[in-house]
Amino acid sequence: MAGLWYQLKLTMKDKMSIITFFLPLVMALALNLLSDGSFSEEGRTRFAVLSNTESAEIIPMLERYGAVTACDSREELKAQIIDPDNDTIGVVPAQGGLEIVLAGDEMSWTAAVASRLESMLRGREQAMEMLVLPRQNLIGELLNPLIALVLVSALFLGLTFNTINLVMEKEDGVVFVNDVLPLTPLAYLLQKTAIGFLGSVVLTVLSALILLDRLTQLLQLLPLVIFGGFVAAVTGLMIGRLAENLMVSIVYIKIVMLIFMAVPLVAHLFAPQAIQPYFHILPPYTFFAGTIGILEHSANLPLHTGVLFLHSIIWFGIYRLMTGRKNPWKNWNE
Amino acid sequence: MRGLWGLLKKDLHLMKSGKFFVLAGLSLLLFSLYINYIFGKLETELPVMAVFDPLGRLEEEIHDRQDVVFLPSVGALYEIMEKGGANIGLDLSGEPPRLIRNSSDPRNNALALAYARSVLRGEKEAPAITYLGEIDRRMKKRLVMTNEVLFFQISTIGFLGIASLLYKEKSMGVLQVSSVLPVRRGAFILSKSLTFLFSDLLFAAALIVINLGLVYFAPVFLRALPHIVILSVTMGLLGLFFSLLCRDFKQFAVPFTFIVLVMVSPVFLADNAVLDWKWLRYYPLYHLFMGLKKAFFGLWTSSPLYYAAAFFFIGILVCGVWYRIGTELSRG
What we know:
heterodimer; A: alpha/beta; D-Maltodextrin-Binding Protein, domain 2; 4-stranded mixed β-sheet; 14 helices; B: mainly alpha; 2 domains; 5 strands; 70% helix; elongated
């Protein structure tokens, strides 16, 4: 136990680990703020006109419907319309009507408005009743995947702790190892796993406390976090073994994080239902799917927990295979 | 000159051993897969109208349009409008006809009302629209995404890469060797910046060719070139400065996180219209991003002031790095 405490202290000395620790928490807080609705009001339709006497008549008409920009020259009008940041409809009075100018890459709604603009401005009034529905949260549908994504990142950022711990030992030589020895190989392994595991679990639970509304959801999440945290810790051990130095280990962590975060999100959002089960090969996907299930009250917890448990065993087995034997090729070179 | 050539070769070799190219290649692959197979197929456009029309009041040609959906019942219409699944909803089963909206902006609603009236009057659409650009909606999305990826990659990976290079040199003791050898500071800075500029340009070229196609390569790449050079050199020098300032790689993590979170993310949030911040106009990196984006769309809008500011800032950075190298070498 004293050894473990020592290892934790060693990890906490490291700035990288501390930043890593706060990153998901900051993301969680930001997500909480976003979902409270600090979004900009939806965009208005924009019109661009030439500021000459002929346009004087249509400017007030257009202003009833959206934002109007008056341009001094034809060139400025053109630049305003092509500008990729917003959809702008150019309106120039011409003989017997209006000339409508578009860039060609507008959204279908803007293009639809442009094609009827003349009739809209000159047409008669006519009875129609309008019903405005209560507005929905803009990111309502995206929120659950985002919450799950932050939790996945928290879970697997935990692996930074034991990776960096291992690599630091490598870089500092055996000085620090001597402090925790004599240890049996098993105890050493357990301690190294424990750092990553604790990091993952604490980080994920804290993020979940910020993000989830109800405590029962957190309780449901806990088994997933425990097995997921173990997989994360073992992944951290593997990276720590493979990386020669700190820089390389950070590059590896980045690559692993990129894959572990991108694949579940993409699979969840875009993969057809039929092939989604195959993504359970990757542990973060199982965790991701489980979290989404909990958020949507449709979780198959025994299944997800079971799959993650299997992952734990398999990944640990792979790690043992990696390190348990001496490198079989080594003797050939020497 | 021979000294510079030697330095360049050494830096390239160090980048290779630092797995820098592996990271760049892998992110190129991942981003390209995303843009080509997922982002390209993503349909984010809402239908213009969702209509319940049991009496057949709308004309035939509207029925043929791709961006209008017809629904079998009032319930289905309300359901789709509640989810925000169309720009306007039209319930034509009663009198007067009813327009359904899920936005509360008065001008947008006035626009929607005028549009719905025009549709109901059965007036023909004006066919005479002048189109200025050659790109369509699909291509626009690709251009925007490619531009964002490029900006992100150059600003973060270059920054990280140059630091990892320098710390490797520090740990190998190359810096100490440099301090006793007659290696000029200018050559040192030039070689670092050039290697990363070279790899950034390579990345940009590959990204553009893979995701936009060969036809777009020459115009887009040439127009974007000045902005890529400015961004790459600035970020490289910033990385160099901070890595000279921080004692080891772990300390360097602080400015790195700061750069990624605080410098780069506001630009992305603003570009995706999630946030509407007026003060971004005073933020230099925003102009760099916009310059790059407009270059992608064939607009030369950056003023001489922009280039002057960029050169001025790069000059300051070079001075800063110059000074730091001096202290670093005398310390070593």
